[in-house]
Amino acid sequence: MTVQSADESLSPQVPKDGIDPRGPRFGAAITATLLLFVILLAMPGASRPPVEPWERATQPAFLLLTGIVVLFSWGAAAGVARHPYGVLFGRVIRPRLAPPAEREDPRPPRFAQLIGLIVTGLGLVLALAGVPFALVTGAALAFVAAFLNSVFGLCIGCQLYLLLVRSRVLT
Amino acid sequence: MDVVWTWAAVGALVLVTSIGGLLWRRRQGRVVSDRAVHRVSAGDLTVDSASPALLGTDVTLVQFSTEFCGQCPATRRLLSGLANDEPHSAIRHIDIDLTHRPDLATKYRVLQTPTTLVLDGEGRVRARIGGPPRRPELVDLLERIQKENHDRAVSR
User: Fold this and answer.
1) Do B71 and A14 form a contact (C-beta atoms < 8 A)?
2) Which of A35, B7, B52, B92 fits a 20 to 30 Å CA distance from A78?
3) Whole-angstrom Cα distance, residue B59 to residue B141?
C-alpha cells in the first residue's frame, strides 16, 4: 500500500479525459493521403507558377491544400477529438476496436496540428506569392510528419511540444 | 515526361520517409550500452531534498518522463516491476519528471521521453534506452550487471 501511494505521488497527472492514441493516427492517415494528392496535382508545372495571382489561387492543388489548412486550423483550435476525423474515428472506428491500452494527453497532438497548420499555411502563402515549388514543398514536409505519425506512431509535433514545454517556452 | 517525374518524386518521398520511420522504430526501446564513463550520484537525481534519491546496490533504473508523455506510464509499470523500492534493495527505479528539472534533460542529453538510464552499483551509466524499453534486452543487462557484482563479491 505504501509502495502504491509513493508511486501515485510520482506519477504525473494524466487527465481522465485522455484520448485514444489511435485517433490522431487515423486522422494522420487521411491527411497523408490528401497531401500526396496535393503533390501529384502540384508537381507538373511547379517550377513555372501561373502569372496571375487568381490563377495561382484556383489551381486544384492550391484548393486541396487550402482544405487541408482549414482542417489543421480546426484541429489546432478545437483539439483532435473534435476535429472531423476525430469525430469520425470516435463514431465509426473506435466502437469496432478493443479499448486502448493507454490514453494520451490531448495537448501534444493538438500542438502537432498547429505545426501542420504553420507548415501547410506557409506553403499556401508562398504559393500565392508565386514562389516556385511552394505547394509541393509545404505538402511534402507535412506529408513526412503525417505519414510517420500514422504508420509508425512517431508524432514529431508532439515531441516538439514536449521539448518546448520542458525548455519553458510553452507553459 | 512531367508525369514520370511526378510519380518518381512521390515514390521517392514515400520510400525515404518509410526508411526513416523504420530506422527510428528499430532504435526505439533498444538497450544501447554507454561507453563513455559517466558517473551519477544520488544527489544528482534528487528532485526534492526532503526525500533524497537512493541508488540500488546493484542497479538503478533512472526514468526521465514528462507530464504529457503517452508511453511513460507503461514504462513506469515495466521498470517498477523489475525494481524494488525498499531501502538497500538491489534494483531501484527512480522516475524524474523533466518538467520540473529541465537542467537534468540538458545534462543527460534527453531528447525524448521516456528515456531510461541504467546505472550500476557505483552509479556508472551502463546503458541508455530511448522510448519504452524492450523487456528481454533490459532483463539481460540487469542479469549481467548483477552477475558481475556477485562475482566481484565472491573474489573479494
Assistant:
1) no
2) A35
3) 10
pLDDT tens sequence across B35-94: 666 788 888 887 777 777 788 889 999 999 988 888 888 899 999 999 887 767 889 999
- Residue extents of the structural domains in chain B: 30-155
Going by CATH, does the domain composed of B30-155 fall within 3.30.160.670? Answer: no
Nearest to B64 by CA among B140, B121, B133, B123: B133
| C-alpha span between B128 and B114 (Å, rounded) | 11
Tell me the CA distances in angstroms from B134 to A148, B87, B130, B142, one per residue in order. 21, 26, 10, 12
Q: Which of A7, A41, A162 would best serve as a mutation to test chain B binding (most B beta carbons within 10 A)?
A: A162
What is the percent of chain B with per-residue pLDDT over 70, rounded to a whole number?
95
Under DSSP, the state recorded for A148 is I
Question: Distance between CA A161 and CA A169 in Å, rounded?
Answer: 9
Please state, in angstroms and rounded to a whole number, the distance separating the CA atoms of residues B19 and B16: 5
Beta-strand runs (E) in A26-105:
none
Q: How far apart are CA B93 and CA B66, in angstroms?
A: 16
The residues facing B62 across adjacent strands are B94, B117
The answer to whether the Cβ–Cβ distance between B72 and A12 falls below 8 Å is yes
B 34-63 residues with CB < 8 A to A: none
| Ramachandran region, residue A64 (left: φ > 0; alpha: ψ -120 to 50; beta: rest) | alpha
Question: Does the CB of B73 have a partner CB in chain A at under 8 Å?
Answer: yes
Candidate from B2, B5, B17 with C-beta closest to A148: B17
